[in-house]
């Protein structure tokens, strides 16, 4: 089987960290490079967290490029309240390897890469600043990537930064607006409507502990803060892990279902960062996005756990039925 090539643009971040581990261990994926954007944490910290993860999974060969340090127009507001001051649940772990970032800026790398290559998908797990800057430099970026998947936005589910806006689009609404308008490729939007169904529960953590390793210990450590945050603010026992679902959907497009629509992102006012999904075709505009609204959670946990635990699929399929699959963040 040929591996799917992907460049991951991210802002690690607890759930980004889980998505990176999942991607780097997945047998069907070839991670070409990782690009870092400011979001959950400032870019330099995002780079350090990414290097720590590469070291953990023994993939220091993968290049990391640092990109934007601030959103396009708005002041930068991190999500360190959600992910901890270090972005990894205040574990304050440090890389031992002294990995350095590549010299080129992430957006220049992306712009140049997609001048030649056409077989690589872009998986965006943070604000869309790097993507917008790369698209400004290379107008064919959208046509030349094989797929463009963005974790961000929301359709019927409420926001997580305001009543109506999700963090990645709210953090840099101008970048999100620019990408949806000018990408010339369908933005596959893995928003809160589907990611809120992916709740890592205490049962999942208990299950991970049955496979003791440095990796499962790391996951347990970094998610503790995220658990506390969700309990404090949302009375949810567990944590919503958004970013790994976007990766699962890249690997297996049947994991989520939705519909095509024209989508616009609000850049000012009370609804700043909201993704306005024209499901009823009021604006009479061509569709620029696919909005995911349904997810097969069992299928997600199956592939996620099989991959990160290096276990045969059959082992996980049997055990998974014992787990409380969570996923009932209903709104
Ligand atoms: C998104 O915002 C970040 O905090 C997470 O990493 C995820 O990408 C969810 O709104
Ligand atoms: Ca993220």
From TrEMBL:
Q: Keywords of this protein's UniProt record, alphabetized?
A: Glycosidase, Hydrolase
Query: What Pfam families does the record point to?
Result: IU_nuc_hydro
InterPro entries according to UniProt: Inosine/uridine_hydrolase_dom (IPR001910), IUNH (IPR023186), Ribo_hydro-like (IPR036452)
Q: What class of enzyme is it?
A: hydrolase
Tell me its EC number(s), please. 3.2.2.1
Residues in Inosine/uridine-preferring nucleoside hydrolase domain copies: 6-302
Q: GO molecular function terms here?
A: purine nucleosidase activity
Q: Does the keyword Hydrolase apply?
A: yes
PANTHER family, alphabetically?
INOSINE-URIDINE PREFERRING NUCLEOSIDE HYDROLASE (PTHR12304), URIDINE NUCLEOSIDASE (PTHR12304:SF4)
The name this protein goes by in its record:
Purine nucleosidase
């Amino acid at each position: 089987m040929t591996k799917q090539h992907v460049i991951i643009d991210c802002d690690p971040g607890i759930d980004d960290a889980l998505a990176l581990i999942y991607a780097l261990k997945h047998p069907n994926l070839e991670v070409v490079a990782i690009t870092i954007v400011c979001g959950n944490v400032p870019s330099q910290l995002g780079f350090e967290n990414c290097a720590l993860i590469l070291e953990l999974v023994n993939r220091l060969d993968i290049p990391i490029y640092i990109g934007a340090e601030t959103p396009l127009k708005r002041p930068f507001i991190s999500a360190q309240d959600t992910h901890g001051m270090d972005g990894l649940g205040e574990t304050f772990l440090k890389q031992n390897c002294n990995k350095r970032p590549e010299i080129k800026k992430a957006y220049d790398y992306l712009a140049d890469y997609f001048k030649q290559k056409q077989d690589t998908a872009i998986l965006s797990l943070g604000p869309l600043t790097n993507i917008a800057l790369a698209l400004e430099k290379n107008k064919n970026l959208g046509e030349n990537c094989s797929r463009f998947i963005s974790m961000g936005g929301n359709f019927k589910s409420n926001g997580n930064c305001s009543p109506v806006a999700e963090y990645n689009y709210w953090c840099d609404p101008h970048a999100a607006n620019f990408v949806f308008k000018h990408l010339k490729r369908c933005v596959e939007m893995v928003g809160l409507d589907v990611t809120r169904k992916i709740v890592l529960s205490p049962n999942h953590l208990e299950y991970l502990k049955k496979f003791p390793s440095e990796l499962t210990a790391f996951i347990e450590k970094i998610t503790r803060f995220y658990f506390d945050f969700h309990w404090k603010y949302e009375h949810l026992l567990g944590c919503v892990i958004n970013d790994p679902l976007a990766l699962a959907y890249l690997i297996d497009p049947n994991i989520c279902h939705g519909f095509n629509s024209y989508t616009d992102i609000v850049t000012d006012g009370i609804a700043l960062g909201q993704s306005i999904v024209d499901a009823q075709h009021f604006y009479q505009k061509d569709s620029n996005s696919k909005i995911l609204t349904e997810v097969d959670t069992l299928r997600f946990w199956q592939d996620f756990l099989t991959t990160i635990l290096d276990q045969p699929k059959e082992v996980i399929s049997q055990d998974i039925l014992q787990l409380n699959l969570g996923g009932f963040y209903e709104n």
